[in-house]
Amino acid sequence: MGKTLKIIIPMAGLGTRLRPHTWSKPKQLVTVAGQAVLDHVLHTLSTLPEDLDIELINIVGYLGDQIEAYIRLHYPEKKSYFILQENPLGQSHAIWLAREYLSGPMLVVFADTLIETDLSRLPEETASGVVWVHAVDDPRRFGVAELGQNGWVKRLIEKPQDLSNNLAIVGFYYFQEAANLLEAIDEQMRLDIKLKGEYYLADAINLLLKQGYCMRTQSVDAWLDTGTPESLLVTNRYLLTNGLDNSTQASQRPGIVCIPPLFVHPTAEIQQSIIGPNVSIGAGCVVHNSIISDSILEDEAQATGIILQGSLVGRSAQLTRRAGVINAGDNTVVTL
To answer: What would the mean pLDDT of 120-130 be, rounded to a whole number?
Structure first.
């Protein structure tokens, strides 16, 4: 492996499962455990050797200018390119759009999920390709890697009907030579191999595997989803429990009761409130006279006199409880 590694990150999806939050920002900029999802994705790359030259190739779509601005502001040291995918033609199409930037070894990193894995020995990799996987009890909801008798990946299967192959694909791939993948994508497009109108990367990889491509699996230590409000809260709990809790510092503030784990940004203003467990409060937030648990408040959100549980509160949102008048009919249920 050479000294330059190309890392392509497809991020052109609309994030419909995270609406209304993704009406105003890409899903990669939604906050979890005090940081944007994109920050956690890029942190995964921190175990790569320091002497390796990294080039980020970001495929963006709707509101992609926000992603470009975010990376240029927070990661100015990284050599980054931004490519617009205007038409949602799939994962392989996204990679194909970046073909002029791709040569030599490359990683494909999907930013819908977060993983924990050690990349420090990647330059020593001898296989032609690697697919990162996580063993699951029921693989029927995922794409899986089927292994041959020799231990190499035989094929990738989308949502298998049985439980015999339980190595779920986590959306992280290595290719020793980008040209091999690009040739397979060209063949995929020529044969028009699609699923629901989109070109999926798994189909391009299967074309490579049929040609004898040597790909192995690599298990991950953790696999976290950020695609729905429910899964985002689960991921928030995990990250706070595994290193991102700052309840010790937060509990030193007067007028606040902290129940760890939690993250409170230093610029947040909190008075007469109970915070936690499993709460993330972003920069510039204002929380007064409230009880908040198992929730995420993004930057500059405000909460006054409320009880929150299992909630996502977007940037600059204002939640206030006040006395009101209710005229309720039969069988009405009112939750305040």
So the answer is: 93
